[in-house]
Amino acid sequence: MKDFLALKKSVGLLVVMMLFMNLGWRPVAAASKGLQVYYNGELLTFEDAQPVIREGNTLVPFRQLFETLGFQVKWSDTGGVRKASGAKEGLEIELTLDSTRAQVNGNSVELEVPAQMIDGKTMVPLRFVSENSGYGVTFMDSGGGFVINIEDGNGSGVMTGQRGTETVEPGIVKGRVTDAQGKPIEGAEVVADNQLIYNSNGAAVTDANGYYRIPLGMRAATWHVSAKINRPYNGNTYTFDLVPDNDNPFTGNDGAIRNFTWNASGTKPEGCYSCRGRVLFYMMDLTNPKDPALLPPDREDVEITLTPDGPLVDGSPGQVIKGHGTNSPDGFGIQDVPLGRYTIQARYVPEGEPPVQMKIRKVREDQYADSLTTNFSSITSGINRIEIELKLP
Length: 393
Description:
Blueprint: H1 2-23, E1 35-39, E2 42-43, E3 52-54, E4 57-61, H2 62-68, E5 72-78, E6 81-88, E7 91-96, E8 101-104, E9 107-110, E10 116-118, E11 121-125, H3 126-131, E12 135-141, E13 146-152, E14 172-179, E15 189-194, E16 202-205, E17 211-215, E18 222-233, E19 236-241, E20 243-244, E21 250-251, E22 256-257, E23 260-262, E24 277-283, E25 302-308, E26 321-324, E27 326-327, E28 332-337, E29 342-348, E30 356-357, E31 359-362, E32 372-374, E33 377-380, E34 383-391
Parallel strand pairs: 1-13, 14-22, 14-23, 24-34
Antiparallel strand pairs: 1-2, 3-4, 4-11, 5-6, 6-7, 7-8, 8-9, 10-11, 12-13, 14-17, 15-16, 15-18, 18-19, 18-21, 20-23, 24-28, 25-26, 25-29, 27-28, 29-30, 29-32, 31-34, 33-34
């Protein structure tokens, strides 16, 4: 009986251990396929300790990385506060062990993962140190293993040359945000939504080159990524949801690349509700002004013309839009209009009759006129409308 209970306890312990391993709660994770680090094309050999991945970031031995990048290194331990630092002409980087704040030329900078002691060795985040030293860092899958390249950069902390060939990093979601012409968008807000654990989302803002990077850790949770931008225009601020190149969820320990596009004009991306606005109109004639015995004007017979009054919200010149209204969940009108300032005119063009210029005004305003020049109103985040009232003269 004792042997049976001991066996049962051992099996239970094994199940718990396997569960934790599957969920990915591991303090240190080495790259499963092997990891090599190159500096300007030369393979670096780490003798004291091998690179490890923690919270989606590669950590390498402090002294060898700093000296490879041309720093004079310094180590201090004062009052239990341990610091690893490096200095060279015009640059000093200081990392405090187990702190998520570092100092770059005296300025406090947030870290994705802190410098730390692992198996008695001081390990520092490779990307942070390299990019703040003016180098570009690329993470690629060579087929037989992962390869990190540290290469001369432009000092901006943005990878040069090979970033387009970069592949997925475990525990990281990253990508780029551009407009419809491929130009980078700075300041876009990107959110990685943890689908398993409440209130555990990650977020980032794109840099001047449109890139973002969010560490997810090595947990086997499912994630979904979304992005948006806010754009001021003629005294208003509009929010746009950005269109992903891949909207599928993924697991955090696999990592992912998700790029986004802002398409505020041109062809509307499928499923992008906030990319456009709607011009909704209402018929104010309850009877036909020509003859009360005739049917009142039919909204289906109204032709709306929208002429851009200056550049649109994305800076493009825009085009004249002319058409008849259709139904939408919001109401009847012209759908999917690129956001901008427009001069609006309306004609009543029933079949077999001469067209009639209609009078127009914004909803609940006092005066009707032959045309109306106005901006879209932001009803709520991502929902923008112009609402007008029409009547025959």
